[in-house]
Amino acid sequence: MQAVAEEWRTITDFPNYAVSDMGRVKRIADSLCGYKAGKLLSLTPGKNGYPMVQLWSNKRFTKIYVHQLTLEKFVGPRPEGFVCNHIDACRTNNKPGNLEWISQSGNVLHCSKMGRKISPHLRGEENPFSKLKAGEVWLIKKLLASKKITQKMIGKMFCTSQAHISLISTGKEWSSVTYP
C-alpha cells in the first residue's frame, strides 16, 4: 500500500505557517527565536474542546481554531453568517472532507441529530486534549504549596509549560482538584 502525500497550503494571514489536508499546522520558515521550519505545532483545546494553535505575526500571538484554518484553505472562505461544521461530530477530525460551512441553525440541528450536546465544556480528564490526570494535578498543587520548587521546574517535571502550572496555581484550570 502506498502512502498518500500530505498536502500543505500556506496560511494567508500567517505566511510563516501552513495547514495540511490532515488538519495539522506547521511552521514553514525559521523564526528569530530559533524555531525551525518544518516543526509541527502543538494543538491545544479551546474552552469548547476544539483544537487550536497559536500563530505568531506582527509581534503577537493569535489563537486560531484548526478546523477554520483547514476549511478556509481547502474549501474556501467562510460565507457570511456561516460556521464550521464537523460532519462526523468529532471535534478532532479536521480533515477537509469532514468539514463544511453551514448556517448556525443548521449546525445546531446537526449537533442534535448526532446526539451531541450543543455546548459541552469538557473539564479535566474528560477533555481529550488533557495532558494531565487528576492525581498529577493534586501532586502539582502539593509542590506549589511547598514553595520549594519553581513553577518552571514543576512544568518540566510534568512535561507542560510554566504558564499551564500558573493557571493551575491560580485556580483558572483544574479547580476541581483540591489540595489541603
Beta-strand content bin? 15-25%
Q: Radius of gyration, Cα only, in angstroms?
A: 19 Å
CATH fold assignment of the largest domain: Homing Intron 3 (I-Ppo) Encoded Endonuclease, Chain A
| First-residue to last-residue Cα separation | 56 Å
Taken together, the total number of domains comes to: 2
Shape: globular
The helical percent reads 25-40%
Q: pLDDT below 50 for ≥5 consecutive residues: which ranges?
A: none
Spatial sequence of strands, sheet with the most strands: 1-2-3
Total helices: the number is 5
Secondary structural class: alpha+beta
- Overall pLDDT level: 86
Which terms summarize this structure?
180 residues, alpha+beta, Homing Intron 3 (I-Ppo) Encoded Endonuclease, Chain A, 3-stranded antiparallel beta sheet, 22% strand
What does this structure look like?
With 180 residues, the protein is an alpha+beta fold. It has 2 domains: 1-122, Homing Intron 3 (I-Ppo) Encoded Endonuclease, Chain A (Alpha-Beta Complex); 131-169, no CATH class. It is 26% helix and 22% strand. The protein has 5 helices and 8 strands. The strands form 3 sheets. A 3-stranded antiparallel sheet has the order 1-2-3, covered by helices on one side. It has a 3-stranded antiparallel sheet with strand order 4-5-6. It has a two-stranded antiparallel sheet with strand order 7-8. A hairpin with a 2-residue loop joins strand 1 and strand 2. Helix 4 crosses helix 5.
Ordered list of secondary-structure elements with their pairings:
Blueprint: E1 8-11, E2 14-20, E3 25-27, E4 44-45, E5 51-57, E6 60-65, H1 66-74, E7 82-86, E8 99-103, H2 104-113, H3 134-146, H4 151-157, H5 162-169
Antiparallel strand pairs: 1-2, 2-3, 4-5, 5-6, 7-8
